[in-house]
User: Fold these one by one.
Assistant:
Number 1:
Amino acid sequence: MTMPSPTPARPEPHPDFGPDFARRCYLQMLTARRIDEEAIALQRQGVFPAYVSLRGQEAAQVAGAAALDTERDFAFPTYREMGVALAMGVDMVGYMASHRALWHGGLYDPAASRFAALNAVVGGPVPHAVGWAVGERLRGGSGCAVAYFGDGASSEGDVHEAMNFAAVYRAPVVFFCQNNRWALSVPNERQVAGGSVAARGQGYGMPGTAVDGNDAAAVHHAMARALERARAGEGPSLIEALTYRVEPHSTSDDTSRYRDAEEERAWRGRDPLTLLRARMEADGSGDAAFFERAEQEARERAEAVRDGVSTAPEPDGADLFTHVFREPTEELARQQRVWHEEVRP
Amino acid sequence: MTGTITEAAGAADASAPRVREMSMQQAVNAALRTVLREDPRTLVFGEDVGALGGVFRVTDGLQEEFGAERVFDTPLAESAIIGMAVGLAMNGWRPIPELQFDGFAYPAVDQIVNQLARMNYRSRGAVPMPVTLRLPSFGGIQAPEHHGESLEALFAHVPGLKVCAPCDPQDAYRLLLQSVRCDDPVVYMEPKARYWDRRPVELAHDPGDMPVGRSRVLRRGRHATLVAWGAMVHRCLQAAEYAAEDGVELEVVDLRWLKPIDAEGLAASAARTRRAVVVHEAPLTAGLGAEVSALVTERAFGALAAPVERVAGFDVPYPAGPLEPQYLPTIDRILSAVQRTLEYKRP
């Protein structure tokens, strides 16, 4: 079992990471945790066919995404970035609708949210971030693209192609790898040759930084610096947030078949919420009243999301056809008539 | 060469039709100039499309005229080329990526099928993909392995994609304009074997009234219909010439759009002639000829005097140079199929 020994050593928090910021971060991390728990419960109750927990990755997701400017930046998630969605202000009922299997890409507006539609082809969205960033610079914008992927996806060819493209074009992209040590059942040792995703940045001529992904301030610092660099026209960066997937890969998974429960227990002891709370208590940015209020707010928000997604209407069958093309074809219209006459409930 | 195209496509008075004799490769170039000029959101990129002007010189001079920001080389990685097109479209651009050869589209199939084709659907219309993927296609030039393939059935099978293949310079110009102006992703398959075919081309801003999905009859005939696309159209026209010498009048339909397919147009022609032969380069099994055959049969069954015949490549990989002429449908095979439809007797 390997615990992250963050290298470089824990940096001083970024100047933006003041008491207000820490409180906002904590509240959102806690909210993500509570929504996650509600989602697992919904799966147990049969409301969700399956769910993928982000537990343990709240700092990596929320504290990093909190550095994004949601007026101009754009995030490209895979399917486990609920904390990023929350931090970016995505409609969470629309987001969780994907886990209720109401619509594959979720029911939020990806363009307005500046958070792309969920994507289960891990690695697939990474070159999209590069294209978006090249396009952003071409049109004179100052936005940055953030590509999310995991240690598993770091093996995908698309991730390497995208890093090379981004570096060749000096595109404003942050490649943000959440290394949660387990790609479903396969550990880092059998996934990441060389032992470090961050080290690969060097091969593409971009900074690659490994940070303690459970340390909110460290994650935020790395992301904020990478965004500053991208915005200044200095090109892409790679961040590897070292964290741990304490829950199974999905609610259909069985970790007892491939990993040691002791390892999970040890990592639960490095809970990112506990770590941030300790920091805030130590520096005085959060007192007991704050944490009590945060707990209440997080619960209320999670319950509202739970209720919203549980009662959201199922899509109309006509939606099967609506968005296949912008300019409809006669053949699809004919097939829709077949659906209308022979299938429609 | 470049100067001529620039002069033609860049006519100061866009409403004045300008007719120039040009090759298909020059016509595609002229169409790219037209769309780059008319829509500042268009971008042309791919391997070697910049200074070199593309391996077939289709993008010749474009970087010079429109600058290295709108016409640019990419590193050699097809998946990222299409992935980048998806991202550019997400940021409001109308990308026109080129994949250098048909066989090299395979490394990009994930991005084409899983991403490009369904992004509008996945996002419920919030993220449209007005991307035109240019793909030099098909065989007939005795190219190295993977430099001559027919992927139309693969792409036509994918929900969310549109697919077209011109057969002559004028239609190459027209179809490219239509593809780029279309808000859906289009795979635009350029028949390499016809790149150097020279014909008069009218370089109009709006080159005629041919909606997306419409086929056209290139030769009228009353005994049987030949259906083809890309380079096989020319071969069918040649076959029709030979048949005419024997008094057999063949109708030749250029399908143009492989998705959506002009089912009504096909059925109307087959119903008139009562016989149909579909010709394509791709391997027979599960090729697009099966779709054409099914559509004709479903819509014109009562009128047909014979089963629809398919003349296709064999179910083997595109072979090396000397064997390619034996792989591609020959005029003899086309005429034999016609003969079978003419001699068919109902059991």
Number 2:
Amino acid sequence: MVTFRPNSVGKAIKRREDPRLIRGLGTYTDDVKLPGMTYAAFVRSDFPAGAIRSIDTTAAADHPGVVAVYTYADMDGQVGPSPVGAEMPGMGKADHPLLADGRVLHVGQPVAVVVAETPYAARDAAGLVEVDIEPREAVVDVEAAMAPDAPKVYEELDSNICIQIPVPNPEADKLFEQADQTLSMRLLNQRVAPFPMEGRAICAHWEEGPGKLTIWTSNQAPHFVKQQIAMCLRIPEIRIRAIAPEVGGGFGAKIPTYPEDPLLCWVSRKLRRPVKWSETRTENLLGMTHGRGHVEKIEVAFQNDGRVLALKGQTISELGAWRSFYGPFIALSTHTMSCGCYDIKAVAWETFAVYTNTMATEAYRGAGRPEAAYIIERVMDEVAAATGLDPVAVRRRNFVDKDAFPHTTASGAVYDSGDYEKTLDRMIELVGYDDAREAQRQARDDGRLVGIGVAAFTEVCGIGPSGGTAPHQRMGTWESATVRVEPSGNVTVYTGVSPHGQGQETAFAQMASDAFGVGLDDVVVVHGDTDQVQHGVGTFGSRGIAVGGAALHMALTKVHAKATRIAAHHLDAPVDQIDYEDGEFTVSGTDRKLTFRQVAEMAHLWNVAVPGEEPGLEAVARFEPPGTTFPFGAHLCQVEVDPESGQIEIQRYVAVDDFGVVINPMLADGQRIGGVVQGIGQAMWEEVQYDDGGQLLSGTLMDYAVPRAKHFPRMVLDNTVTPTDVNPLGAKGIGELGTIGSTPCVVNAIVDALRPLGITNIDMPAKPERVWQAIQAAASAQ
Amino acid sequence: MPRSVPVTVTVNGSTHEREVEPRTLLVHFLREELNLTGVHIGCESTLCGACTVHLNGRAVKSCTVLAVQADGQEVTTIEGLAPDADNLHPLQVGFWEKHGLQCGYCTPGMIMAAKQLLDDNPNPTEAEIREAIDGNICRCTGYQQIVDAVQHAADAAGAA
């Protein structure tokens, strides 16, 4: 392994992405303009379940400016079904059509698409399509959907249960009999909306001449899009170019290829004109996949000294009405990560993924791991309450020892490295924990409801090896990079990850700059275009640096080795006599040297060819992670609850995290603060709500509460560094960590504030109304 | 086709005459007619701020202003804030220096909203900054580095 001198890596370098974005010069999908463009609008189901009696498109088709109106019947089996990645033998499943095929399964399901010369005409005409639906009873509550006599989302399936995976453990049963105490909890991890600022947007362009389809789509994994469009349209993938241009946030919900993606490709091919669609915010809340949506039932066996012996858990995951790309498998990582940072002897678990007549669920910043962290971190606080110990002491008592890594948990995860005490110690020191608790005691004496919550958590990032975690998934988890050195010595990096705010154009330029001693301005990072980038996987699962960066390191190393051989040839010295530093190859112990730029030029000139070497200076590399990384952290939140209104003020938030080696601390801080705020959003305000009949109640920003700037105090951040050896960078991943730690941390703080009143749980979101009602109920119970 | 009405709008110092449907939103006018795609659409309901521009020097959300309401008026968009890459507005510098953006989608609106604040109050406190950008949602940054960016711009203007 080559270690490049870190001139740039490790520093807070300003982003290369920003100059265009701060001037409004980025090109997002809706900014794409093509000659002959048409505009699409969707007609969506107003009913959560029902049979389509008829669809009358006459008035819409006659509307001025309308080019075409299509329904399922028009597709004539030429395109679809909707792409799915999660396949498993024995799962209850059905194909999902791109447009409703005689029945509707959730509110917001596309029923027809109207194509017009202008966006306004398309929207106008969409309102003229008459869809006559015979409603039938919808099933909305996930637990009700599991009942044998529940209405079925798919009448042709045996039940609404898509997957049921029991993992019994006799050892856990035994420990439950031996334990000093047990407790049980029911925890809700409510459904939330990913809410990227840019919703879904698609521009599809079939060119009849070359027989080529180009799709711009606001997506996190354009190479998947290419493959899936090919399958859906039954045309070779070599005729498809997928571009994820500037993408305005994703958070997991832009991993899937949605039904609208292949559908609009089919429309463009049929019309031989480009077609563009950008969803409205209401469409986004209706028709972009939701996240979370878990009911967790947990039993805990523990000793009077706070030692947790065993867990028995049940996860019921709301799948919604159809399988999105990865949805059914998300809940599996809740079981995998159930032990958190703790050395728990035995875990028994059962996981269900269940259909309901609601929008599909999918990965959302953390995807199964936040649910696990929420469970175990709430459990630790309740164990502390039951044993009369401090929550921090209970955590310390259960931590996996720093010398015990790699550590295999009772749920089967293999943790790479960790030092949980170190990170917690730093957090405690930053906070002044004892003083904070003393101040809390004084506040309580004054009758104030002040709470301090702690979360010490770990999560899993940089998933690999391919197929290792979910053998039936249709995806690899490797990543690719190409490093192409021009004759000038300037460098183009092509990465298979598809960043959309994470900043890899900067982080990867830092790495290339260090490798070759060229300036940051002499490196360009290309991503998100399947015609430019070698095959790749994408950006999700906190894998950009840990997997994509590792692939880049491999490619840089390959190029560097070749440059060294070329330099050795021209310096007339053996390769092992060549020293390299900061862009210069020197014959050891002499002043004979060549710069990297000279070598780059030589690599491209035939008259100075090196025997045995191909011309050029370029390498492709693919990194297949041998294992996963487990970043971790210790967070603390202090809140004060107003007993009169139930309003919660976040007074303090401190996060000390460990994500291994850091490429750019400024980018890492951005990911962390953003993640913490997103997690607090779930803890306090955000909730996708359907009524009992299956109608979405949270379809606008008036009804769905996204965190805003004034909700938060200034956060205090620090980090410790515990490298990993599963990749050559030692980096663990950072994208989802904040979201995973903050949600239980805040809820623990709120429950801590309310515990003197006898309250032991508040379900998320801890809205003022809910908190106020809990306070009233507790008062009347006393 | 629907009837059209003439509008004349001065945008970033240039005057544009167009025929538009009366219902045309200012944001669509700017994006579709004038190709000013730095103005983003986030909610079509005045609640997210991605479409914030200045109308006669005051920040407005252009998704709920009609193009005809801007007739004869002056509009400034993010594209009009700096003449070129070498002469960025202090807020643009601040956002770059302090990592005030990630995906960049909220950024033009956020900068235009912050400009209103600094126009009115050149030395805002952190609380005042947080209050001033309350109508603008950012889903990536968690706001703290946006606050720092605005503070950076205020400090730079104060030092100048």
